[in-house]
Amino acid sequence: MAHNAQALLAGTARRHYVRPVAIETLVGTTLAGYTVRGKVGEGGTSTVFRADHPTHGTVALKVLREKLQHDKTAVARFLREAEFGARVQHPNIVRTLDYGQFDTDRYYLAIEWAGGEILDKYAERSGPLSSKEVVEILSQICSAVQATHDVGIVHRDLKPENVMYDPATHQVKLLDFGIAADTDAAPDQRLTRAGFFVGTLMYVAPEALSGELVGPAADQYSLATIAYFLLTGTLPYTGKSPRELFSQLLTQPPVALNQAKPPLAFPVAVETVVMKALSKEPGARYPSVQAFSDAFTAAAQTTAMATPLSASGVPAAATGDESSGLFGKMKGLFRRS
Predict the structure, then answer these.
(1) Is the pLDDT of residue 104 over 80?
(2) Do both 269 and 240 map to the same domain?
(3) Are residues 210 and 286 both part of a single domain?
(4) Residue that terminates a domain, selected from 112, 129, 157
(5) Based on the domain organization, do 187 and 62 belong to the same domain?
(6) 10 Å Cβ neighbour count for 245?
(7) CA angle 159, 162, 163 (to 5 degrees)
């Protein structure tokens, strides 16, 4: 693994070395030509900054966390994210601009600065979303994911938190290839130990729970879960703890779309498409992500969706308050494993 990581750095990346700098003092400094303007966020493996570059302009600069700089698997994942991002070019995927080293040990990744906001936050504020907007968003994500599948990459962590959405332009950008997998990789090149799964439990496909390397159908399942969430504000499984959710994913069918959030009602065609893509067996889903996207778009255009119904079954007038109470999911319990 270490050899492969060094090969990546020696290939498309530029090597940069500067004097060691603590992560807390990066703001205001210039590293590898990037002037760090401010901290954007922090995850389990990296800290993200907004930075400016004379050629690339404003970028998102990801820096591997100091405690992981000597962790071979963490470094390999970080470099693989950079390599995968450079390998697939698509208007709905953030572009990888540059990656390399500073401090002799600290790794950085510069990616395109995507406008808008995290899709999860937008959906919480504005959801359930209209059929038109869901089709608009989902078709772009599916197009991006299909492009990754076409070059042999499975994303493995598709969720609203990994999508940027600009409501003003309706532009979608897919983020974070940190745990993506190469479908052509040899078994000894895997970075996930057998028996362990990666991904986010609320959006992961059932077959991923075995710890085996999943295929494109697993991404399709995650995309169907995203569609379900955008349409209803809820998720296909109702488990309130990781243990309960894990068990439901393995042993129970997902809640049918038309039972997700009464009084929301959906055309049978839309429910059929979403539930087919949520099939437990990968072979029962659509043959590709693009096929799922096409089927969902066609079904959504047949009639108006998500019409709130009164107790008598008559369509109720819109109240402008559809989003209240729809997001009681316990996200903190189910973050990336």
Answers:
(1) no
(2) yes
(3) yes
(4) 112
(5) no
(6) 20
(7) 95
Give CA 237 to chain center in angstroms.
Answer: 19
Domain assignment present for 335: no
Q: Which of 36-40, 82-86, 124-128 has the lowest mean pLDDT?
A: 82-86
- 337 domain residue, yes or no: no
The domain total for the chain is: 2
In this structure, the answer to whether residues 144 and 194 fall within a common structural domain is yes
Does residue 291 or residue 69 have the better pLDDT? 291
This prediction has a pTM of: 0.78
Omega before 128 cis (within 30°)? Answer: yes
336 located within any domain:
no
pLDDT digits (tens, 9 = 90+) for 296-332: 999 998 755 444 443 333 444 333 333 333 333 334 3
- Residues in Cβ contact with 194 at an 8 Å cutoff, skipping those fewer than 6 apart: 211, 212
Give strand pairing partners of 53. 57
**Distance, CA of 70 to CA of 62 (rounded, Å):** 17
Phi, psi torsion values for 291, nearest 5 degrees: -65, -40
Residue that is last in its domain, among 95, 112, 129: 112
Q: Are residues 217 and 127 in the same domain?
A: yes
What are 214's two structure tokens?
Answer: 């999943």
| CATH code, 121 | 1.10.510.10
Give CA–CA dist 177/193, Å, rounded: 18
Q: How far apart are CA 334 and CA 116, in angstroms?
A: 25
**Structural domain of 108:** 2-112
- The residues annotated as belonging to the active site are 157
At residue 232, does pLDDT exceed 50? yes
